[in-house]
Structure formats: C-alpha cells, structure tokens
Specification:
341 residues; Helix Hairpins; five-stranded mixed beta sheet
Length: 341
C-alpha cells in the first residue's frame, strides 16, 4: 500500500533530484566549454559542494518545519484530550506562527465548549438524580395515605353492618388522608414554581401576629392534643402573606411532628422563632436539612419528602431573609427568620 512521504523526505527527494539534474547539466556544459582537465574537475567539485551545502541547508529547514508541523498535527489529533496548551511554542516562519496562534484560539474555544458541556452534563445528571429522588419520595409519602383510604373504603364496602359511629370514624380517616394528599400535592406545585422561576412576591402590609394565630388554629384542628404557645404582640410587616403562611405552617408543623412537649412561637424585633423540645438534629445534618430531597437516614429527623424546608428557604430568600437553625440532639431545635417591620 502506498505510503505518503514525510515533509522532510519529500523536500529532500525533490532537492536531490534537482541537484543531480543540475550537476549533470553543468557537467555536460563544462565538458564542452572547459578544455583544461584540472579546471574542469575543480569546477565540478565546487559545484558538487555548493549543491550539497544547499541541499543540507534546505534539508535542515525542512526538518525544523516538519517538527513544527508535527506539533500542530499533535494538537489537532488530540484536541479533545489536551489539558494544557503550550503557549511558549514559537515558529520560525510567519505562516506557521499564524497557524499556531489561530490553533490556540480554536483550542481555547474548544476547551471552553468542553467545559460548558461537562458542566451541563453534570447539571443534567444532578437533575436526573433529583427527579429519581423526587419520584421515590412521592411514592413514599403518598403510599401510606392512599393505602389508608383504600383500606377504610374497602372495609366500609365489605361490611354493610358497621355501626354508624365507626362508619363516621372511618370516613373521617378517609377525609384526613385526602387532606394529607392535597397538602403534599400543593407542596409539589409550590416547589415546582420555585424550580422554574415562576414564583413571585405579592407583598402587602399585615399583622404577622394574626397570621401566627390563624396558623396555630388550623394546626390544632389536626394536632388536637398539642399546645402551641405564642409569645408575640401585634406587629405590622410588609411581605407576601400567602407565602409566609406556608413558612409558618412548615416550621410549626415540623416542631409538632418531632416533639411531644409544647411548641413556642415568639416574635421580637421582627425576628420570628419556632422552638421545640424534641429529638433535635445532629450537627452533621443541620447543614443538609434545607437541601432539596434530603432525607435523614434516621427516624429522629425526617424532612418530609425533602421539600418542606427547601421551600421555606426559597420563600425567605425571596423576602431577603434566611433560615437560621439552632439544634441539639435530644434537647430540641429553634428555627428563626427575620422580616422587615
């Protein structure tokens, strides 16, 4: 199979051919024109030496050019693998130097595109992992209320002689589990708005104390045997009332879930704190509980579906505030945030 010659080989082959041809041509002419034999040999010797030096000089230049062309070829061949560009490489011809500079520009753009591609792939993998986590969390959270609804409904359907009081109890269980599913769906819809950047603030002036009282009243309908103590006075704030209701419900309900004693909600100088005396959060988990889809490996802290505190964090961020967490295991936790009065 025919193999193309290297640059130096090609140049030297052409030069030697031309040199031999010129030498033969001048030899013939010299033989005709020069009668003196010594002069003829001196002339041919000098001609051969001159041609040899010329071939050698051009051959060295061709060798150097071949080396530089190999550098360019190596760059092009491994463009997607090059970690570091050799900016110190210089060429002895203007054309090759320009090719090198243009090549460096191409490599820079290629590396930049590759970096962008890698970041995009990393984000895509993270999104896919989060989506899988979300589906797993949704399945986990919805399984219990759906199973309860199906169980109670099946019992009511199979046994027509259930006493009215027990029927009412079962229907109430079905209703409460339906409310739980509705709350989970609302949380997912709200989280999706924050993820897509569609969530916007609708600020208004209102009494935050009255909002705390309303949230307390709604939660005590569910946690009938619990106590929520409010240490606050009437205070007017400017914020999104609907979103702050979500924040307060999440924080207070978390406190009710993971503690058995009373929960205290305090308001002082625009700082709202929700304190419980429950299981607390370990030091290694405090920085993680507000992350999306984070679920603790223990039963002492289970951030429902991994979205509740993430949503709280996003809402407070929209208000220019942040969630502060102080907690000790087996002693309790305090969740705080500040609002502009």
């Amino acid at each position: 199979m025919y193999k193309r010659p290297h640059f130096k080989e090609y140049v030297l082959a052409r030069l030697i051919s031309m040199a031999v041809l010129l030498f033969v041509l001048f030899w013939v002419l010299a033989t005709v024109l020069i009668d003196n034999r010594d002069t003829l040999f001196l002339f041919l010797g000098l001609l051969a030496l001159a041609l040899a030096l010329f071939v050698y000089a051009v051959g060295r230049g061709a060798k150097r050019m071949e080396k530089e062309l190999r550098i360019i070829a190596a760059y092009l061949q491994s463009m997607d693998k090059i970690e570091k560009i050799d900016y110190k490489t210089h060429f002895f011809t203007q054309e090759l130097e320009e090719i090198n500079q243009n090549l460096i520009k191409v490599l820079k753009k290629s590396k930049k595109r590759e970096d962008v591609k890698q970041r995009y792939n990393a984000k895509l993998k993270l999104k896919n992992r989060q989506r899988a986590d979300m589906l797993s969390a949704i399945a986990h959270e919805f399984r219990n209320p759906i199973a309860s609804i199906m169980g109670y409904a099946q019992t009511l359907e199979d046994d027509k002689d259930i006493p009215p009081a027990l029927q009412e109890k079962f229907l109430n269980k079905i209703y409460n589990n339906g409310l739980k599913i509705e709350a989970l769906l609302s949380r997912l819809v709200l989280w999706n708005k924050f993820e897509s950047g569609e969530a916007t603030l609708h600020p208004s002036s209102f009494d935050i104390y009255q909002l705390i009282v309303e949230v307390k009243r709604s939660l005590l309908d569910k946690y009938t045997n619990r106590e929520i103590r409010i240490e606050a006075e009437s205070t007017i704030v400017k914020a999104d009332r609907t979103l702050l209701e979500v924040v307060l419900k999440n924080l207070i309900e978390n406190a009710l879930k993971y503690s058995k004693d009373e929960v205290t909600v305090s308001l002082k100088d625009g700082k709202i704190s929700v304190k419980d005396k429950g299981a607390g959060i370990s030091e290694r988990d405090i920085g993680k509980v507000t992350k999306k889809f984070y679920r603790s490996g223990t039963h002492s802290w289970d951030n429902s579906m991994g979205l509740g505190l993430s949503i709280v964090k996003s809402i407070l961020s929209l208000h220019g505030s942040k969630l502060e967490i102080e907690s000790k295991e087996n002693k309790g936790s305090t969740f705080s945030f500040s609002l502009s009065l």
